[in-house]
Amino acid sequence: MRKTHYIPVTADVPGASSDANCAQIRKTIRAALAAEGVTAPCEIDVLLTDDKGIHAINRDMRNVDRPTDVLSFPEFDLHPGELPTSEDADPGTGLIPLGDMVISMEHVLAQAKEYGHSNRRELSYLVVHSVLHLLGYDHLDEGAQKAQMRAREEAILAQLDLKR
Per residue in 47-88, pLDDT tens? Predict the structure, then answer.
């Protein structure tokens, strides 16, 4: 049985899965899980791609014919504050499979420039955003749900010293 999170990071574009990117992604995922009170060992699979790759996944999986910055595919139908339990763990690994995230590194670079902050901050923002989706947060409305999710994102990024 594992006692730590398992976070494989793969890339289908050259250079995306640099040691620095992988380390930042893993650090951010661990911080987000800790901030949300997830203590059981989990697995989150991460794919780094480009706009073409995320466009194809978005079209195939969600019937949305455009690229986006990040996609999240949760394993469980959770609600904010609801955590998976040890009963949700894979008996073979002892890990709770929270789901998958896909990040467009092209969007990371473009949005960092657009918003005037570092690529590191933008990558971490998208990772936190995705982890929160895997844990049941959403922003379907422009009201309370979105405000709740944005507040959690900013709190976690502040813990990582990545404020706006």
Answer: 999 999 999 999 999 999 999 999 999 999 999 889 998 899
Task: Dump pLDDT digits (tens) for 105-134.
Answer: 999 999 999 999 999 999 999 999 999 999
- Find the DSSP H helices in 7-143: 19-35, 51-62, 105-115, 119-134
Selected from 3.40.50.2000, 2.70.70.10, 3.40.390.30, 1.10.40.30, the CATH number assigned to the domain covering 9-159 reads: 3.40.390.30
Task: Please return the burial class of 6, using the count of CB atoms within 10 Å of its CB with bins 0-12, 13-18 and 19+.
Answer: middle
The full set of domain ranges for the chain reads: 9-159
Question: E-strand spans in 57-121?
Answer: 70-74, 96-104
Neighbours of 41 (CB within 10 A): 18
